[in-house]
Amino acid sequence: MTDLDIDDLWDHAPSGHLIADPQGRILRVNSTLLNWLGYEPDALRGRLIGDLLTPGGRIHYDTHFGPLLRMSGELAGVTVDLVTVDGTRLPTFLTANVKTDSDKRPILLRITAVDATDRRAFERELRQQRERIEIEIGRVRVFADTLRRSLLPPVLSPPPGLEAADYFYPASADHIGGDFYDLFPLSRATWGFFLGDVVGKGVDAAVTTGLTRYVLRSAAVSDEDPVRVLHNLNSVLGQKLGIGDHRMCTLIYGNLTKRDTGFDVDLASGGHLPPLLIGGDGSALYADTIGGQAVGITREPHFIASHLHLAPGDTLVLYTDGLTEARTGIGRERFDDHGALLRFATDHAPTTAAGIVDAIHGLLDTLGAGVEDDAAVLAFGVPS
Amino acid sequence: MDVRTRNNITITGAQGAPVLLLAHGFGCDQNLWRPVVDLLESKFRLVLMDHVGSGSSDPGAWDADKYSSLTGYADDIVDVLDELDLRDVVFVGHSVAAMMGALAVNADPTRFAKLVMLTPSPRYIDDADYRGGFSREDIDELLESMEMNYLGWSHDMAPVIMGNPDRPDLHDELEASFCRTDPACARVFARATFLSDNRDDLAQIPVPTLVIECAQDAIAPHGVGAYVRDHIPGSELITLSAIGHCPHVSDPEATARAIAAFAGSP
Fold first, then answer.
1. How far is B201 from chain A (nearest CA, A)?
2. Biggest distance spanned by C-alpha atoms of chain A
3. What does the pLDDT read at residue A70?
4. pLDDT digits (tens, 9 = 90+) for B132-162
5. Which of A47, A59, A83 would best serve as a mutation to test chain B binding (most B beta carbons within 10 A)?
6. Known catalytic residue at B217
7. How much is the ipTM here?
8. C-alpha–C-alpha distance, residues A110 and A69, integer Å
9. pLDDT per residue over B8-18, tens digit each?
């Protein structure tokens, strides 16, 4: 290789080269960069690097890139538009470093520019895409949040003499699970309630959830037998609804009727997890609702009816599998694999509706990321 | 809120000496003062800060509303002086921080002895006969240039608060955090800076003020330094031969000399 080759590389390299003094005054520019910018040889000598930039780019250079280069001795791949002699812009990537003397004082700035026209067009598209995506995500969040709130009661309205508490734990900000619950008056003496979980997630599940809520509320008004309320829902979910596969749910429906110092509870279960009955005497057990089928599976399903009485001090707790199937972090173990929920209830007995809901709220927070699905909790208690 | 953590307060220099509070401008952080710190620390007590949203300030203190105007940053400066219980402070503000200093002095003159404005501009955008040097479009272009350069910005590489109270090796720290600002904060700071108009605040400045400009500065162009001097009663103007907007980086000796002579005089 001869000196001639090296001179040729300096002048005609596929990138622009520029040498400036430490103040940014241009000393020498290679032919490639002069050609890109449309300047005659020597036309740039003595000008400032900033003179090659747009006004906005100059601010960026003078407040960030220039000081960064002087302080750290190098600049790695910053995005800068150079301005050609006729005012058009040349998108480039700049890299630079500083030549120093033996006292580490800067003597020269060495700057290389690479043509980034294609790359910049791609980046601009990428940036616009990202802006669109951010707007879309915001819209989806608002949509999901509004929809989710419409599936849960804004406030619980329990009958006089009964305390109620609820908690809903959304597993994700932009996905809607199928958990739902409600508590509402049917007559002067009777209140209805339900809690359940539509199979699946997403829009179809949300549509089924909304439908289920309204069917239950209207069926409850026309029929006082909880099992028939579930059959009514089963008929609706069995019709052709055009909502895909998510038309099956497990749930507990029940009526609360004031009697003596407490409340009678008539329950019907469609394959849902059994409610916990936490006694005023410190006991805890599952209500006998095991064995029914989920609603929406077959034309003639089997639902389980159950009757119990809440005396002063007793608390009834309904929940979804987001709680029982939360991962504990120990291997593949789920929270309720070995009876942990009943032990948890026993440990907190006797309790109140608000007390047990707070405790389960704390439990869900402890399980944290292990809670992979939405979790809903609804509790009633007769004050002792 | 611990103000020292919020603004990443660093204190160095001579015990019991006159106090200089050094505040950085738009772009980078307190590290830009290092060359002049080396020259001033034998004679002065030096307090350095990062504005919230810059450098190693506390990310948790960010408040887009508060920091969308220079008053938010100026309030923090007063907080810092209150918290450290400093009086007779010589405030040295670079670029937009010079105007933050003006706002802080006007808000609470009791803590300040003097003001040093390093390459200040009370308004960056031209307005009738006033020449700030830029148009509104230029500022949009700056924001666009920032966007393009933040394309590769990753939250994983966001600056972490440095626990080392000693001065760590310059190069390592620069690699780790220098000039890496959260784009969301930088956008707000850029708007607060370049869309501000503090011309009316100059006349009220009640302390002796030194204006330092550079002979050639694209951001505070010729004439802006004189405008600032002419509108602050009793102020003086020094023009350094340096080129650019950051004489404390490009010509630290001359900059430190000018600051020391003004701050050290009775």
1. 24
2. 109
3. 87
4. 999 999 998 888 888 777 755 544 443 333 3
5. A59
6. yes
7. 0.87
8. 10
9. 999 999 999 99
